[in-house]
Amino acid sequence: MDIKVLDNINHNGKSYKPGDIMRKVTKKDAERLINLGAAEETEETSDVDASDEYDDLEDESSNEDAKKNK
């Protein structure tokens, strides 16, 4: 299940900020976070989890920095 983060969340050793999408969250965890008001349900849009997206963005940023330093 995918959920949209509404408040700062630390989940399974990862930090999420408002606006982030947490992917492949268990239904139990998602319901708990939604009931706490820390997240809201969103449509599943991808098979990629949030940690993979973050790693890709870090890689792109590093590549752009390397190009600027040449």
Helix content: 40-55%
What's the number of domains?
1
Shape: globular
Tell me the span between the first and last alpha carbons: 43 Å
User: What is the radius of gyration?
Assistant: 14 Å
Strand order of the largest sheet: 4-1-5
InterPro entries: DUF7210 (IPR055634)
Domain DUF7210: 1-39
Protein name: DUF7210 domain-containing protein
Region (Disordered): 36-70
Please name the defining characteristics of this protein.
two-stranded antiparallel sheet, 2 helices, alpha+beta, single chain, 5 strands, 3-stranded antiparallel β-sheet, 70 residues
Structure description:
The chain is α+β, with helices and mostly antiparallel strands. It has one domain (3-68). 40% of the residues lie in helices and 20% in strands. It has 2 helices and 5 strands, in the order ββββαβα. It has helices spanning 27-35, 50-68, and strands at residues 3-5, 9-11, 14-16, 21-22, 39-41. The strands form 2 sheets. It has a 3-stranded antiparallel β-sheet. A two-stranded antiparallel sheet has the order 2-3. The chain is globular. 11% of the residues are buried. The model has no long low-confidence stretch (mean pLDDT 77). This is DUF7210 domain-containing protein. It comes from Clostridium cylindrosporum DSM 605. Residues 1-39 form the DUF7210 domain. Residues 36-70 are annotated as: Disordered. It holds the Pfam family DUF7210.
